User: Fold this.
Amino acid sequence: MDMWLGVMPVIMAFGTLALIIAEVTPIFQWLGMPFIPLLKLFKIPYAVEASQTMIIGFADMFLSFVIGLNIPSELTRFVIAGVSVSQLIYLSEVGAVILGSKIPVSLGEMFIIFIERTLIALPIMAIAGHILF
Assistant:
């Protein structure tokens, strides 16, 4: 109960702050630029729009869906959703719990794990998306 009450305000605050940053500033667009060639390599339509969703998942899992909602391609939205769900480390939920616990994992190490999971999930979801769509 102590962990839940201690982490819940951090989760809500961080999620809200990440949404504001994503909607008002181009920070996540800049951070997502390295994913554009990778998305184009996998022939994902609207690679530029989808690129920011690959990195915004580190802030919050649901922000990827919010940002990618207006992308017209079902294939792109499928890849965004699949990658987002498989990333598993979001600062607003899991990251806050890990940082609040006694697990010896730093923020930098969590980011590296996040990027590794993203790079593993992206080709798998791209292949699955091309098969389904």
Notes: Helices lie at 2-24, 27-32, 35-41, 47-56, 61-68, 74-87, 91-100, 107-132. The chain is about 80% helix and 0% strand. Residues 78 and 129 are 7 Å apart (CA to CA).
